[in-house]
Amino acid sequence: MSVWQKISRAFAVDDAILDEDFSLMPEELQEGRPEKGKQKQPKTQESEQSSKPKQEPKQDLKQEPEHEHEDDRPSASTLSHAQPRRRSPVKPKKIGHRSTEADDPSAEPSEIAAKSSRPEPESEPEPKPDAPQKVRREKRKQQAKNYEVDPEQHNLSFKPTYPEQVSISLHENRDTIIQLFQIPRNADFVIREFTVSTETPIQAFAVFMEGMSDKTIINDNVLQPLMLLASLPHGHAQARADLIKNSLLPGNQLQILEKWEAVKNNILTGSTAVFVEGMDCALIVETKGWEHRTVSDTKTETVVRGPHDAFTENLRTNTGLVRARLRTEKLITEITQVGELAATDIAIMYVEGIVSQKLVTEVKRRIKAIKVDFLQDSGTLEQFIEDPPFSMIPRMLATERPDRVAVSLTEGYVAVFVGQSPYVLILPTMLWSLLHTAEDAYVRYPFGTLLRLIRFSAFLVALLLPALYIAVTNYHPEMIPTDLMLTIASSREKVPFPVVMEVLLMEVAIELIREAGIRIPNVIGPTIGIVGALILGQAAVQAGVVSPLLVIVVSVTALAAFTMPNYNLSFAVRTLRFVMILLSGVWGFYGITLGMLVLLMDWATMKSFGIPMLTNVSPYKQSSADVILRGRVFKQEIRPGALYPGLMKRQVRITRPWDPATHDSREAVEQYEQENRQQDTEARNTKGKRGGNPT
Amino acid sequence: MIKTGHLGRREMLALTVVASVADVSLFYPQQLVMRGASAGWMIPVFSMLVAFAVWALVAPVLVREEKQDLITLCEKSLGSFATRAICVVIALYMIADLSTFTRTFTEAVVTTVLPRSPISFIAVPFFLVCMYYAKKGIEGISRVSLVLWSWLAIGMLALLILNWNWMRPEQAMPLWGNGIGPLLSGAGLFTSVFLNILVIALFSSRMRKGSDVRAIGYWSIGIIGVTYLLVTLVFLMCFSPEAAMRSPFPLYQLGRLIYIGRFIQRLEAAFVFIWVVMAVIKVSMAVMIATYLFATVFRMPVYRPLVAAVAIIVYDLSFYPRSFVETISYNNKYIVTWGWAVTMGIPLVVTLAVRVRKRREVRGDEELDPQENAS
């Protein structure tokens, strides 16, 4: 989208639409609102869409290539139609804008762009004798003639140069392998040829990747049985393959594959492919065994009380860590891949029956839409699928703690694991969640609440303290008690810079120290502390560059920023702090207030997978007492209503029936039990009213 | 892209309350004291009763005609031309009200917080923020209102309570001030601050439950009335009526007065936050409504291109009065005198027209039925 298009879009959104983004709200609630536009204009965008002759089937008819090897090159439009489109798109509409094909309400902006650059099919009917339209079509035909592949729209998949099916000839298969992996130029791939020791020896070979496969498994479970123990019949290829699979290869996961694409992908993930003469298939033995860090302590989300294990750089280990905690058959892990040059595994995890299916569909849709040659990390994926890409506050929670993922899944969130990333994305997220830690739940509720209050205060301090210092000293000194004001004035007497400059100098110095502290080799790490303390704490004050009070202000601000439990949020706070400093330097409290109001509006309207970032507070949604303060754990009976969970109830109302404070009579006990029984059989939430049925 | 377009009841309540009490930080309490002297605090009470009465007539129609708002109801009952005329009148009223409001607000900021600053230096960032809010739409403004209104309430209460050591109840005597006549006439005029009735009527179709509209109306009228009452009463009890008449910014003066110990004193700058928040929410909402109505009048499918234009017009008009005093004079002469006709009168007229039309329809049906039975 060009700059002009963006500006045009900013000024041309239908005012009848208060919110045009994806929303988790059930559709029957969304459609319930009559629109003035509908009443006034006989044909609104929706009615246009429904009354239009079905154009969609054209694309639906475009069948997927029968074989994976075919160069399908789906355009952006086909990609976006991969999932059933249930949402009613609203296009930005300019005043006086003429209706064109690009106005098709079912088209995304990217689709419109793709359509405009795509050649017209020859079978298209002649345009009506309408002069302006004719001119436009001529122009488009001209564009179609000069069609050039747009690198941004073009599919990145590489055209395969290998055959589709595994051959019956061992020799051909070996040649294909050599050509495919460019052996011996590519030294990572190993071909081990051997003879299966039967009465009539049969030739075979195994292919695996050095460094990705476990050699012990290959020796003990692949080569040894086939070379020393085998006794194969001369029969049908399938029978031979079945025999090998059932009797000779004791690997715990074994597949018979016939297509080269699948064989290639398995070899690349560390499995061993075994090819046998006379078999038109490959036996894939699971021998993955690359080196990776073992499960170790958390690095960025440390707690005193609670589990200490963290995710590692192994996808399966990570999913296993969550599954070990959340042992239910309802926990679903769907695996997909992203990356045209090199595929990265993506695991989407959720609890069936609790999660909103709309959310899962949207997550999968966004991930599927990614066309990139290589996806590096969850941090990269996050940027591909987040809602408004220019906002500073993170739109999803990256965590390295399996326990946090497990509890989030039970609340109706979706977790996304990315390849070798030790950070798992929990989505959607709200601003409040970014200030929570796992430990809040493990300590008793008064202390959990206290921790939360400290953290929320720290958030404000980290964002605003230097700005407030500037505002008070520059514009509103009357707010400070006289003695303190005199102290500040005397300490600033020798400082040659204005307060704003002084604060900016110190803030930049702090940022330098922080960045250097991360990048510096561990061996000389302590140097940073000494340099920082000397330069900032002592030398700067003694030299009269900054006032001692400012050193305290900047230090407290830095400490407050360190308490941010989310690294991405910490970045946002640090960046916004500079904006606030500038605003307060120019307008004092007035500027800070205006800046905060802009931020609030940004946060209030920003969404994470259909949920406004300030949800639970504004817009209000039903939830247990776990948003800002940490409530009592035995009172947290419902899941967050904003997620529209399949089942709102999390626990029965009376979780401490033995407590004398809970009951004092037999009647009360019976009543509680009856209530609990009712809640146990409570119908699943399908209406989504205020986030679900109250319990 | 899905349309979720609805307003939660809490959001709507917060929006209407914050937008309507924004004037309390400016010269309205002073004007109340000038009309009612020591009984100035009673004027909001009477106005509140009038507003309750009006709402009692308006609300049932809005509840019954679920998913309808003032514009659609007007179109049904009074026709297209009248609808356009009413939209233009409301929009012009909003612009005029905003002009005086923004001028007094910027003057207040210049006088109290940023002295010696050029007025445009204050007004330009203010209008930029308001334009941003108006562009984000009613949903965003209402959400911000909901986030902030508890903070505003705490701030206002703190402001009132922290001045308890200066309060002299005898300064609110004589009880009837200048007499009951000025109180009643002031109450009639003062109903224009109950902007909430108009806002709810305009956006009632955006509520998910029609029955919520009634409760929101009553609650908001009550909260607005009590807020004006309390601020004016505390203002009167802290200053004498004579001093209060000379003080155009009561919240600032009250903040300035706070002195509890050595550390809780001179907090007027901290209350800038309250002023600015209320002003931004009121102005952005009014700009949004004005542009929305203009877009409706001219059958424009969008309102956002008009936001900048309307904001610039308001900015220009706000500089039309030569001074702060002249601004207040304009406000009293036009806005206060005729504001009630827009905020109360239009919703009342439209809903009455709907009732009459309904009655006619029912009567027509009844007349038709005997004929059908006879045939």
UniProtKB/TrEMBL annotation, chain A:
The chain crosses the membrane at residues 412-435, 456-475, 520-539, 545-564, 576-601. It comes from the Bacteria. Residues 30-74, 117-135, 661-685 have a biased composition (Basic and acidic residues). PANTHER family: LEUCINE ZIPPER PROTEIN 4, SPORE GERMINATION PROTEIN. This is Spore germination protein KA. Belongs to the GerABKA family. Residues 83-97, 686-695 have a biased composition (Basic residues). One of its GO terms (cellular component) is membrane.
TrEMBL record, chain B:
Its main location: membrane. Keywords: Germination, Membrane, Transmembrane, Transmembrane helix, Transport. It is found in: Membrane. The keyword Transmembrane helix applies. GO terms for biological process: spore germination. Gene3D superfamilies: Amino acid/polyamine transporter I. It is a multi-pass membrane protein. The chain crosses the membrane at residues 12-29, 41-63, 78-96, 116-134, 146-167, 179-203, 215-237, 272-295, 302-320, 335-354. Belongs to the amino acid-polyamine-organocation (APC) superfamily. Spore germination protein (SGP) (TC 2.A.3.9) family. This is Spore germination protein (Amino acid permease).
